[in-house]
Amino acid sequence: MKAGLILESWPLFAEGVWITVQLTVLALALGLCLAVPVAFVRLRRVRGLSALADGYVALFRGTPLLVQLYMVYFGLSQFEWLRDSWAWALLREAWWCALITFALNSGAYASEILRGALAATPAGELEAARALGLRPRQVDRLVLLPAALRRSLPQLGNEVVFMLHGSAVASVITLQDILGAGRALNARYYLAYEGLLTAAALYMLVTLVVVGVFRALERRYLRHLALAPVRVRSRLPAMR
Amino acid sequence: MNELLPFLPLLLRGAAVTLALALLGLALATALGALGAVGRLSGRRLPAAAVRGYTALVRGVPDLVMVLLVYFGGQRLLNDLGALVGLDRIPLPPFWAGVLSIGFIYGAYLTETFRGAYRALPAGQADAARALGLGRGATLRLVLLPQMLRHALPGYANVWMVLVKSTAVVSVIGLGDLVGVANDVGKSQRAPFLFFGFVLLVYLGITWVSGRLFAAAERRAAR
């Protein structure tokens, strides 16, 4: 074990953590923005749009993230009209391809989580909102969505961990994220596992931080559940 | 589409590698999951702590990192062990590195699935079996396992779905699975969209078919 080399390379790993965090946070934020309308469309069965939303979710939840990334990064370059368009300025950059893919992927999973939470909202809550004189739009915006977001907090926490881990495939398309930094260290000094072990430890560290943040969020926003007997949390994030 | 047809046999062979990897990975994961669940449920401190460490490790590390660690680190380990006993270099092929890492990762998830299924059984079931004079093995085989099956199936199906998609990352260490083949051919034929599109369809097909199978199995177990 060459601990000296790892310590010497801390700027490499710091940069890697920054890229991983950046990609994960942006992808999750964009994904959530996408997930809200998709979840509503699928809940309300809007004609025409629903089929599109169903197809989107099925495609992104039914296929590997790595292949989705290859599709965007390598696949789209097959089309000349796309290479000539303005969008090429973004799509030829590995960073943007990764962000777009991750956001679409995360949006599909988050919309499924949200849809479940929206559908599980007690009817009485909505009746009460209507009885107070709120218009349908206001019920959605002020009651239904906040309640559903709050209830899906634990599952969204899992989604964050999965996106964080999934983002490691970005290193395959040349990005220097945490794993990219580890592989760069290995390649530079002909090491077998030192860089990879460091990367693994860093991913664990970031995961612990995410889990801690979501515990705190749950304590804050699901405080009304704390009075009930505390449910033993699973050691692993539930599989998505 | 015409570019794809000549490569169809190659792609299908890749799909077979993907399926073999997924099934062997699932077999190993099932064995590790059973072992882990027994360790957690045994009530002994050391096995329970070891299993807790195992699941915590898997929870923190991405699948791609695990695959690379097993492949490169495992090869180094094999070399060192081989040198110790005076053997020549034992190669660790990407396929087996993939099976090992996939099995290792999803064994941790199945540990939780099996543990949950066991704890879902009323304690009276085991007591009743004992009262009927069944031994420990017979109790497990005839009374507990059949009932656990019903509780474990939904979680097991879920793990399988995620596991199948996880096999794609093994292509990164040079495995000629569906993704690896499509990557090579798609680039040489300058039609990556077409070939990766095919890959997406195959994965959708696998998840759709296995979703159907598991739904039928769940109906059967719950009848």
UniProtKB/TrEMBL annotation, chain A:
Gene3D superfamilies named in the record = MetI-like
GO MF terms here are: transmembrane transporter activity
Query: Its GO CC terms?
Result: ATP-binding cassette (ABC) transporter complex
* Gene Ontology process terms (BP): amino acid transport
Compartment list: Cell inner membrane; Cell membrane
The alphabetized UniProt keywords are: Cell inner membrane, Cell membrane, Membrane, Transmembrane, Transmembrane helix, Transport
Keyword Oxidoreductase found: no
Record Pfam families: BPD_transp_1
- ABC transmembrane type-1 domain residues are 17-215
InterPro entries xrefs = AA_ABC_transptr_permease_3TM (IPR010065), ArtM/GltK/GlnP/TcyL/YhdX-like (IPR043429), MetI-like (IPR000515), MetI-like_sf (IPR035906)
Give the record's membrane topology: Multi-pass membrane protein
Transmembrane residues, as ranges? Answer: 17-41, 160-179, 191-214
Chief subcellular location equals membrane
Q: Which family does it belong to?
A: Belongs to the binding-protein-dependent transport system permease family. HisMQ subfamily.
Q: What is this protein called?
A: ABC transporter permease subunit
Please name the source species. Halovulum marinum
UniProtKB/TrEMBL annotation, chain B:
Instruction: Name the Pfam families on file.
Output: BPD_transp_1
User: Principal place where this protein is found?
Assistant: membrane
- In the UniProt record, does the keyword Transmembrane helix occur? yes
Mode of membrane association: Multi-pass membrane protein
MF-aspect GO terms: transmembrane transporter activity
Q: Which UniProt keywords apply?
A: Cell inner membrane, Cell membrane, Membrane, Transmembrane, Transmembrane helix, Transport
Recorded hits in PROSITE patterns, A to Z, give: ABC_TM1
Q: One GO CC annotation, please?
A: ATP-binding cassette (ABC) transporter complex
Q: Does the keyword Cell inner membrane apply?
A: yes
Which residue ranges run through the membrane? 12-35, 56-74, 94-111, 157-181, 193-215
Cross-referenced InterPro entries, in alphabetical order?
AA_ABC_transptr_permease_3TM (IPR010065), ABC_transp_permease_HisMQ (IPR051613), MetI-like (IPR000515), MetI-like_sf (IPR035906)
**Which residues are in the ABC transmembrane type-1 domain?**
15-214
> What is its subcellular localisation?
Cell inner membrane; Cell membrane
The record's CDD domains line, in alphabetical order, gives: TM_PBP2
Q: Which family does the entry's similarity section mention?
A: Belongs to the binding-protein-dependent transport system permease family. HisMQ subfamily.
Q: What name has this protein been given in UniProt?
A: ABC transporter permease subunit
**Phylogenetic placement of the source organism:** Bacteria, Pseudomonadati, Pseudomonadota, Alphaproteobacteria, Rhodobacterales
